[in-house]
Every structure is written in C-alpha cells, then in structure tokens.
Specification:
The chain has six helices and seven strands. By secondary structure, the chain is α+β, with helices and mostly antiparallel strands.
Length: about 210
C-alpha cells in the first residue's frame, strides 16, 4: 500500500473520523481495537470460507478527485479466487462497456469491497488497492468459473490492506431463488413420501389388539 498507517484500521479511521468518534463517545472502544493491532490484514480460514460461498459483492472505486462509484460484481460461488494471504482476484466479465471502474483504477488504485450474506445476515468489508490486468490470458482463464456463461474481458486483482466484519443489526434476511427452489423441492418430495406411506397404511387391515 502506498499509505503508511499506525494501525491497519487507520485506512478507515482517519483523523477526521477519530475526532468524531471522540465527540460521540466511541473513540475509547475503537482505541482498544487499535491496541490489539487494528483490523485483520491477512486472509484466514473464516474469510476464505466466506468468500468461497459468495456469489455477489459490491466494488467501490473513486476518481482522482474523490468522486465515488459502486459497481456490482457477481458469478457462481467460488468466482472470487484467493491468490495468496493478501490478494484476491476475479475475472471481470464484459458488460455495458462504460469502463468507469477501470478508468477510476487507472488514476486512483484505492478500492473497497463489500460482501453481503443475506441468508445468514453477515457482511464483510475489505479495504485495499486494485489493478486491472488485461494482457494475461492464462490468468484470466484460470479465474474463469468452469461452465459459466460469461465472456471474461480482463482480471481485477485486489490487495487487502485491512478487513473487518459487521454485526447483523438491520440486515434483512433474504435467500437466493435457487436455494428456495431446492428447499421447496425437498419439502415436496418428503410430502409425497408421507402421502404414499399414508395411502399404504390405509390399505392395510386394522390390527387386532
């Protein structure tokens, strides 16, 4: 990273943020986080598992003068790949050809990833820097989910500076349509089994006690 921070959480807790935390009474608590080293900076087993189950996330970049932009990225579970303990990557599919994210990264590498798990009401925030790789077909192919119907145009590499989780407060619980369909199919199958068992029992004579 180009910036030097005393704590990893300083990527978000700037002096202005800390001043407001002090004024509103939360600085002491976050100072305790800093005393323990700040936020995590390396991918552990829990984060790896969380990212491995994700099929969607929001990717934020900004122009050189700070105008933010958020773009959605999605794919089958596992489309976010872990390259090493600090780096994740994904194939960037061809889309509407606006190239706002790529343009922003060309002049400002700072980026942010926000991953939501609505079903379990969990979220993960990742701060870092990103860059676009256009001239590595082998890397692009290695990151492309097998059998997924999309055209990879390039690769985005994201180097993590810090990451943190949030509490589930106010996260609405939602489920993917495919998961709901699978649950309903399993329910209907079980109902059919029970109906067949009931019909068989009705056809049997009543035992004499």
């Amino acid at each position: 990273m180009s910036d030097t921070h005393t704590y990893s959480s300083d990527v978000a807790f700037t002096p202005a943020v800390k001043a407001i935390q002090t004024r509103k009474g939360s600085r002491e608590g976050y100072a305790g986080v800093e005393a323990r080293g700040g936020w995590r900076t390396e991918i552990d087993e829990n984060l790896a598992a969380f990212l491995g189950e994700a099929n969607s996330f929001y990717f934020a970049t900004a122009t050189a003068d700070g105008q933010p932009y958020i773009q959605h990225r999605g794919g089958p579970k596992g489309f976010i790949k872990i390259l090493d303990k600090n780096t994740i990557a994904f194939a960037d599919y061809a889309g509407n050809r606006q190239y706002i994210t790529q343009g922003n990264l060309s002049e400002n590498p700072k980026a942010y990833i926000f991953v939501m798990d609505y079903a379990h009401r969990r979220r993960v925030k990742l701060w870092g820097e990103a860059r676009v790789v256009e001239d590595d077909p082998a890397l692009t192919q290695s990151l492309m989910p097998q059998g997924y119907r999309a055209r990879p145009e390039q690769v985005i590499l994201f180097k993590i500076a810090a990451w943190d989780t949030n509490c589930p407060q106010h996260i609405p619980q939602k489920f993917d349509a495919a998961d709901v369909a699978a649950a309903l199919a399993a329910r209907d199958e079980r109902i059919a089994e029970l109906e067949a068992e009931l019909a068989a029992l009705k056809g049997q004579p009543i035992p004499v006690i």
